[in-house]
User: Fold this.
Amino acid sequence: MIIFDLTCSRGHRFEGWFTSADDIARQQAGGLLRCPACDDAEVAVVPSAKVRVTRGEAVAARAPAQPPAEKDDALAAGLPREIVDRLREIVRTTENVGRRFPEEARKIHYDEVPARAIRGQASTEEAEALREEGIEFTALPPFLTREPH
Assistant:
């Protein structure tokens, strides 16, 4: 695996692990490479400086205060850790309806079922159809929907 430093058009920096440079191009062409903070598809590789740590350096001095994935999420989003935690808490209180999201959103919009906070997945076509019907929703950045380590 090759680790590349990446940035989106909004300035969020993150890293991606790829099998090759061709893998980056393939994922970008397929719309699969997206910013984990804002879901922006305009992602570019940026120069990085990797620092080699000598064997004599104390490991305790380098240990992060929190697990790397959680720390990286807060940094990528440009938000304080407390805000990311609170947003995750709010997302956890929603009902995950999975692939039924478009159907459930319509039922709520047309008062067929009681209103409630839901989340789930929708294809690009399904999302566009919901917008055309005047159903308001927003995409959640992946770092809010995955479980922290």
Strands lie at 2-8, 13-18, 43-45, 95-98, 118-120. Confidence is low (pLDDT under 50) at residues 57-67.
